[in-house]
Amino acid sequence: MSNANPISNPAVIIGGGLAGAKTAEELRERGYAGPIVLIAAETVAPYERPPLSKEFLAGAKALPDFTVHDQNWYRDNDIDLRLHTRATTVDTAAKAVALDDGTSLTYSSLVLATGSSSVHPPIDGADADGVFYLRTVDEASALVDVLGEGKRLAVIGGGWIGLEVAAGARGRGAEVTVVEAASQPLQAALGPEIGDAFADLHREHGVDLRLESKVDAITVDGGRATGLKLADGSTVAADAVLIAVGARPNIEIAEAAGLAVADRGVAVDAGLRTSADDVYAVGDIAAAEHPTLQTRVRTEHWANALNQPAVAAQNILGTAAEYSRMPYFFTDQYDLGMEYRGHSDGYSRVVTRGDVAGREFLAFWVDDDGTVLAGMNVNIWDAGDDIAALVESRRPVDVAKLADPTVPLADLLS
């Protein structure tokens, strides 16, 4: 167990996103008196990423609005924030981290908060000018610069990022085409049952949504992307192309250090401890044993980056803690707002109540026994606590009553 007393070797945090910043904050606020070093690859202080495809793209927020803390905060709290710096290797036996500037650090505790990177699929033309990904504020700024009235954007991928950018681009007046290989948008995240609601939403707002379509190549003229060539021989003309086909957890440094991995992430227990002494993982990369779900869960959600650091900090300080929050995420697209709680793996059907066509409804992912594994509220904002209670109970419910809007959700557990 880590020593909670002041020590000479720092707590080192690798990763300059929300999870890394919150880990530094939690350590200080919970009384960690030793030095703290936060290694951040970007040139700006850590910030939250969801606004990049939401409010920032829409022009409603600027970077300072979603920066976790300004650089003065790190100075005032005696946190050594090293921007534009990367960790290259971790030696868990020597408790040492090598940095790309040629220096190294010996740590007392190490927290890996390395996040995810955009998947770069092998598509011809993907290296052309005018092809974008969306993971950093620099990438978001570059994308904003090419969107506007009359511009044409082609989006490869109908997941959360692709659809949120499509909504933001339409709000800026751009013409948008979304190309998705699956039969419904968001199929990987929500299954096939709910996709129609999102497909209808985007089509009603003027998006050319092409489902069950595959991209053969990005067309290029003079080194700049001009659109897409699809497998069926059709083409999509565009001034810019966004590739949004998923994220890849950044676990290379963990794998090279010999840490146990699982579910494409770093395997950790419920206290977020890795297989090496005094090494923790939080955020996108943490494949954590969940004490309520009784399975290992890794989700690339903002809520994990926000909340897991408190558990890691407590364990570093010698106070036993487990991460038991249910997975949570949200989206805002046009006039649709949605929250999702739980983990739907193993569901057998989706039960809805409310007006699905009118996009004011609840949806529940249930297993064969009627246990609610996950729940979603769409444009209904007073149901979140009841949905959370259903998911956390792990108790079967009457599915007919679950679908009946006249039966209060709270009554299902009484």
**Approximate strand percentage:** 25-35%
What form results from the Cα inertia axes? globular
Distance between the termini: 42 Å
Radius of gyration: 22 Å
Poorly predicted ranges? 1-6
**What does the main sheet amount to?**
5 strands, parallel
Global mean pLDDT: 95
Tell me the total number of β-strands: 27
Helix content: 10-25%
Count up the helices.
11
SS-derived structural category: alpha/beta
| Biggest sheet: strand arrangement | 3-2-1-7-20
Q: What's the helix and strand layout?
A:
Elements: E1 11-14, H1 18-29, E2 36-39, H2 55-58, H3 71-76, E3 79-82, E4 87-91, E5 96-99, E6 104-106, E7 109-112, E8 116-118, E9 131-132, H4 137-145, E10 152-156, H5 160-171, E11 175-179, H6 187-190, H7 195-204, E12 208-210, E13 215-221, E14 224-230, E15 235-237, E16 240-243, E17 247-249, H8 252-256, E18 261-262, E19 265-268, E20 279-281, E21 286-290, E22 295-297, H9 302-316, E23 328-333, E24 336-342, E25 349-355, E26 360-366, E27 372-378, H10 384-393, H11 399-402
Parallel strand pairs: 1-2, 1-7, 2-3, 7-20, 9-16, 10-11, 10-16, 11-12, 19-21
Antiparallel strand pairs: 4-5, 5-6, 8-17, 13-14, 14-15, 18-19, 21-22, 23-24, 24-27, 25-26, 26-27
